[in-house]
Write a structure and sequence with these properties.
The protein has 286 residues and is α+β, with helices and mostly antiparallel strands. The chain has one domain: Acyl-CoA thioesterase, double hotdog domain (Porin, Beta Barrel). It is 16% helix and 37% strand. The chain contains 5 helices and 12 strands. It has helices spanning 2-12, 36-48, 132-136, 145-151, 191-201, and strands spanning 15-18, 21-24, 55-63, 73-82, 86-95, 98-108, 157-161, 176-183, 223-234, 244-254, 257-266, 271-283. A 12-stranded antiparallel β-sheet has the order 1-2-4-5-6-3-9-12-11-10-8-7, covered by helices on one side. α2 runs antiparallel to α5.
């Protein structure tokens, strides 16, 4: 399992081509295109390489085109501003001569100040819950081939949902989900890498929350889903090799788009990050 995590870190480690130009390889996770979280995380890695003594505090990104995991991705960083306390970077991801993704990232020097947060939801601890893959193991044979390939992949993160996911039976429920996750092995004490890996994994299990009140399964053949944008705010230090709770909800869906939000808590209840994402949710006529 550690090899899976080592492979991910290798993917997240970019080649520096010029002062502000980087190249990253892709990892096939079973989907027909590059996983959005990979581009999100790699873009943050590129931006982080151009900033000193400041940690990322927020990201705002748009997914423009599908990425091809058979080809490298080039990341161009624009050093928009370096102020007394904040630095701003703009990042463009390019593949086959076209932009596939762009992002703005803010970095802040360490400061003290007012401190408050929402409380963590009262959910069972991860030690009392089965791994996500155990929920899928007995039903993989009944899923479409594309989903069998995605769900059957071993991952560098383990996920433990607080409630059993709806896999074969369509059922409406409140648009709220809670899932524990952590890296499958220990990582070095590198805050920048932990934040980049958190950006990567934040793209899992987020947009699906918008399907819950409609009783539509992620595996529905007439459903088209794709990320449109993704934003993230980092509030406190984080370690992704320790248990984190991803608490997500979906306030709205309309116009073939679903809007979702997420809060990431450490096991001791600290709110370490928040996310939001809007994605395409198009139900085709059968």
């Amino acid at each position: 399992m550690k090899q899976l995590l080592d492979d991910l870190i290798k993917v997240m480690t970019l080649e520096r081509l010029e002062r502000d130009l980087f190249r990253g390889e892709s990892r096939d996770i079973g989907s027909p295109q590059v996983f959005g979280g990979q581009v999100f995380g790699q873009a943050l890695m590129a931006a982080t390489a151009t900033v000193e003594n400041r940690a990322v505090n927020s990201l705002h990104a748009y997914f423009l085109r599908r990425g091809d995991f058979n080809s490298p991705i080039v990341y161009e960083v624009d050093r928009a501003r370096d102020g007394n306390h904040f630095s701003m970077r703009r990042i463009v991801a390019i593949q086959h001569g076209a932009q596939i993704f762009n992002m703005s990232a803010s970095f802040q020097a360490e400061e003290s100040g007012l401190d408050h947060q929402f409380a963590m939801p009262d959910v069972p601890p991860p030690e009392d819950l089965p791994d996500l893959i155990s929920h899928y193991r007995d039903v993989l044979a009944h899923l479409p081939e594309g989903f069998r390939r995605v769900l059957g992949q071993k991952r560098p993160f383990e996920f433990r949902p607080t409630e059993a996911p709806k896999i074969l039976k369509s059922e409406k429920s409140e648009p709220v989900r809670n899932i524990w996750f952590r890296a499958v092995a220990a990582l070095p004490d590198d805050e920048a890498m932990h934040r980049c890996l958190l950006a990567y994994v934040s793209d899992f299990n987020l947009l699906d929350t918008a399907l819950l009140p409609h009783g539509i399964l992620r595996t529905a053949q007439n459903l088209v889903m794709a990320s449109i944008d993704h934003a993230m705010w980092f509030h406190r230090s984080v370690r992704v090799d320790e248990w984190l709770l991803y608490s997500t909800d979906s306030p709205s869906a309309s116009g073939a788009r679903g809007f979702t939000r997420g809060k990431v808590f450490s096991k001791d209840g600290r709110l370490v990050a928040s996310t939001s994402q809007e994605g395409l949710l198009r139900v085709l006529e059968r």
